[in-house]
C-alpha cells in the first residue's frame, strides 16, 4: 500500500513537470504553467477574493446533496418495499433522469430565480437518482436465506427493514452516495453557469470573459479540491458505519 502511495505521488510530480514543460512551449493564454496557476490560487486565497465564491458553491452543494440524497433514500426505500409503487413510478423517474439537466437549468432559473434556490434544485435533482437506484437495488437483493430466517422468527416488516435490509444494503447505498457527492459539485456549477453572479461556476464564466486563463485553472483546482474533500468525508463516514458489519463478516 505504501509503495502505491509513493508511486502515486511520483506520478503527480511527473505530471506537473510535463505540464510545466508543455506550458513553456505555449502562450499563457492557452496553457498557463502550474507555477503561475499556484501563484494565482495562493494570491486569491490570501486576499480573500475566492472565499465568498467558495462558501456560496459549498452551500449550494451541501443543500442540494442533502435534499437530493435524502429524498432518493426515502423514495428508494418505499419503492424497494412496495412493488406496486416501483412498477407505477419507476418508468417516470427514469424518463425524468434521461433529460439533460443542463437543458433544464434555464427553466429552473425562470421558475426559481437567479438566487441560490435554482442551483439547489438542480443539484438535488442530479443527486436524487444515484441514491434512489442503489437503495432500490440494495433492498430488492437482500439475502433470501436471511429474509426467511427473519420470517421464521416472526419479525415484522419494519423490524426486517431496520435490522436486515438497510444494514445489509449499506455498501450499495454508500456507493450511490459517493457518486452523488461528486455529481453535486457538477450540479451546482451547471446552475451557476446559466445564471449567477457569485460562486465558483460564475467565476469560470467571468474568467473566460476576461481571458484570464490562470484564474480559470485556479477555480477548476478549487472545484476539484471541494469534490475530493466531500468524497473523502463520505468515504470516512462509510468506513466508520460499516466497520461493525465488516467485523461480523470477517472482511
Automatic annotation (TrEMBL):
<comment type="similarity">
    <text>Belongs to the binding-protein-dependent transport system permease family.</text>
</comment>
<keyword id="KW-0472">Membrane</keyword>
<keyword id="KW-1003">Cell membrane</keyword>
<keyword id="KW-0813">Transport</keyword>
<feature type="transmembrane region" description="Helical">
    <location>
        <begin position="173"/>
        <end position="195"/>
    </location>
</feature>
<dbReference type="InterPro" id="IPR000515">
    <property type="entry name" value="MetI-like"/>
</dbReference>
<feature type="transmembrane region" description="Helical">
    <location>
        <begin position="215"/>
        <end position="237"/>
    </location>
</feature>
<keyword id="KW-1133">Transmembrane helix</keyword>
<keyword id="KW-0812">Transmembrane</keyword>
<dbReference type="GO" id="GO:0055085">
    <property type="term" value="P:transmembrane transport"/>
</dbReference>
<feature type="transmembrane region" description="Helical">
    <location>
        <begin position="120"/>
        <end position="141"/>
    </location>
</feature>
<protein>
    <submittedName>
        <fullName>ABC transporter permease</fullName>
    </submittedName>
</protein>
<feature type="transmembrane region" description="Helical">
    <location>
        <begin position="61"/>
        <end position="80"/>
    </location>
</feature>
<dbReference type="Pfam" id="PF00528">
    <property type="entry name" value="BPD_transp_1"/>
</dbReference>
<feature type="domain" description="ABC transmembrane type-1">
    <location>
        <begin position="54"/>
        <end position="234"/>
    </location>
</feature>
<dbReference type="GO" id="GO:0005886">
    <property type="term" value="C:plasma membrane"/>
</dbReference>
<dbReference type="InterPro" id="IPR035906">
    <property type="entry name" value="MetI-like_sf"/>
</dbReference>
Amino acid at each position: 500500500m505504501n509503495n502505491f502511495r509513493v508511486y502515486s505521488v511520483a506520478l503527480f510530480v511527473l505530471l506537473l513537470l510535463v505540464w510545466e514543460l508543455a506550458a513553456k512551449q505555449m502562450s499563457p493564454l492557452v496553457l498557463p504553467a502550474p507555477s503561475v496557476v499556484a501563484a494565482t490560487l495562493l494570491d486569491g486565497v490570501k486576499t480573500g477574493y475566492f472565499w465568498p465564491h467558495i462558501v456560496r458553491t459549498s452551500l449550494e452543494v451541501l443543500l442540494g446533496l442533502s435534499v437530493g440524497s435524502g429524498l432518493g433514500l426515502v423514495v428508494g426505500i418505499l419503492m424497494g418495499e412496495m412493488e406496486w409503487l416501483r412498477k407505477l413510478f419507476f418508468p417516470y423517474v427514469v424518463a425524468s433522469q434521461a433529460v439533460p439537466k443542463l437543458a433544464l437549468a434555464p427553466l429552473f432559473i425562470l421558475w426559481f430565480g437567479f438566487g441560490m434556490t435554482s442551483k439547489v434544485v438542480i443539484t438535488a435533482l442530479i443527486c436524487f437518482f444515484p441514491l434512489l437506484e442503489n437503495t432500490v437495488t440494495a433492498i430488492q437483493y437482500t439475502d433470501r436465506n436471511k429474509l426467511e430466517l427473519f420470517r421464521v422468527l416472526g419479525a415484522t416488516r419494519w423490524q426486517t427493514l431496520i435490522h436486515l435490509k438497510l444494514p445489509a444494503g449499506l455498501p450499495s447505498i454508500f456507493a450511490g452516495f459517493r457518486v452523488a457527492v461528486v455529481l453535486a459539485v457538477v450540479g451546482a456549477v451547471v446552475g451557476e453557469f446559466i445564471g449567477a453572479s457569485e460562486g465558483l461556476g460564475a467565476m469560470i464564466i467571468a474568467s473566460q470573459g476576461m481571458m484570464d486563463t490562470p484564474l480559470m485553472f485556479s477555480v477548476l483546482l478549487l472545484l476539484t479540491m471541494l469534490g475530493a474533500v466531500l468524497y473523502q468525508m463520505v468515504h470516512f463516514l462509510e468506513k466508520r458505519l460499516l466497520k461493525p458489519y465488516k467485523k461480523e463478516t470477517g472482511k
